[in-house]
Amino acid sequence: MKKIVIIVSLFTIYFSANAQVKRVVADKIVGQVGDKIILKSDIDNAVTDYKRQGQELPPNANCAFMQGQLIQKALVLQAEKDSLSVTDDEIEAQLDNQIRAFIREYGSKEILEEIANQTVYQIKESFRQPFRERALADQMRKKIVESIKITPTEAKIYWDKIPKDSLPFYETELEISQITSLPKSNKDVDEYVIKQLYDLKRQVENGGKKFDQLAKIFSDDKGTESQGGTLAINRNDKGVIDAAFLSAAFRLKEGQISPVIKSEFGYHIIYMVSRSGEDAVVRHILKVPPVTEDEIKLSIDKLDSVRGRILKHELSFGEAVKKYSDDKNASFNGGQQQGRDGSTYITIDALDKDMVKTIENMKAGDISTPQVYTDERGRKMVRLVFLKTKTTPHREDFKLDYNKIAQRALEEKKQRHLEDWFNEHLSTYYIAIDKDFAGCSILSNWFKYASKN
Question: What's the burial of 386, exposed, middle or buried (CB within 10 Å: 0-12/13-18/19+)?
Fold first, then answer.
């Protein structure tokens, strides 16, 4: 077993060219670990779904997916032996998230059920066991490697083995934090926007216009305007969707339009399309009140005062983020911007054009003056930018890039530990593999123990 890599697809439905859902017939059992069986359809569906998602298939895809299934079944079996468990609430939450993702993808619950030829309840049930097995396998994998640590000496040994001409080259990378301020619109502008929304509401209720048509024309929500303002929501989405929006939506009956409600994004009217228990599909029209130069100036003055206090060491940048930032996530991430890989290091191409201009002449440790910019929602905002670190383009260096090197070394060490664990435990499981996979070299170790059965 050269590498422990799980490549498993949880999707049991896939779409043909005519958008009809088909199920691959579970024609036979092709693998077994203990009492956990693997069907031919598990492998075929995984390969098909990988293709449907536009991902590049690994070499000898059937072999790779079979290895992934065998590994997962072994981990689940061991998790059950070790009395690990996942709660029904955890699985139910994951299933609800998956169903909401499907509804967002296809537009409504009714369309999803029509395409799948199943009710939402039936779709959830078909995913329940795969989700539970994945959760158990994840728990077992974490348990196996939880004690594995890496020392600086081990990281150096790992790095020294890499040919110097094979070391990665890094572009300029930055660590950036920010404090944001959202200028507040004045009362007269708010009242104008509210009046406009009530006028749109009357047009729909009088039968003169359709809600989705008005959403396409008037909504400031660029993410939903092309779909007529359609959103799939769940009553428990409070961490994702504004609480006031959810509360107003779930007071509606199908076909009703809400009064104008205020959220963190602006003002809305909401139309209830359909509702099933905790789930609903709604349409909404969002209007974001424009702000004037006077309101922007107030935010600039506020952040200029905050910057002065930081420079006088009256408070740290991190303390200022928690106290003054209008970013609701700031209390969790300290205003730190994250790269595409989830790390704190960002390349310049990942920054918005306003940020690039701001940091152009800054040095590591500098705090910018208040900068006006336009956020991803099209709102005028003001921010202070703290440039914590800035590297120059370079070939990987052990001191400069220690964290990245240590993380790679740690993952390799965990990988070896997993391999050792499997080599130690495979002989304790009943293993069976169909002869159709006899040509899979990556399964040689599995076949060695399967032959004994």
Answer: buried
Residues 422, 389 share a domain: no
Cα 332 from chain centroid? 16
Look up the CATH number of the domain holding residue 117: 1.10.4030.10
List the one residue out of 91, 33, 98, 96 whose CA is nearest residue 66.
33
Q: Are residue 280 and residue 361 in the same domain, yes or no?
A: no
Token digits for 379? 């709102």
Residue 14: Cβ within 10 Å count: 20
* Distance from C-alpha of 420 to C-alpha of 243, rounded to nearest angstrom: 49
Contact assessment for residue 41 and residue 158, using Cβ atoms and an 8 Å cutoff: no
| Amino acid symbol at 191 | E
Is the residue at 34 inside a domain?
yes
Backbone angles phi, psi at 280, to 5 degrees: -155, 155
pTM of the model: 0.65
C-alpha span between 442 and 63 (Å, rounded): 7
7 band by pLDDT with thresholds 50, 70 and 90: very low
pLDDT digits (tens, 9 = 90+) for 31-55: 999 999 999 988 988 888 788 777 7
Place of tokens 């009703």: 256
The answer to whether residue 157 sits within a structural domain is no
pLDDT digits (tens, 9 = 90+) for 56-71: 888 889 999 999 999 9
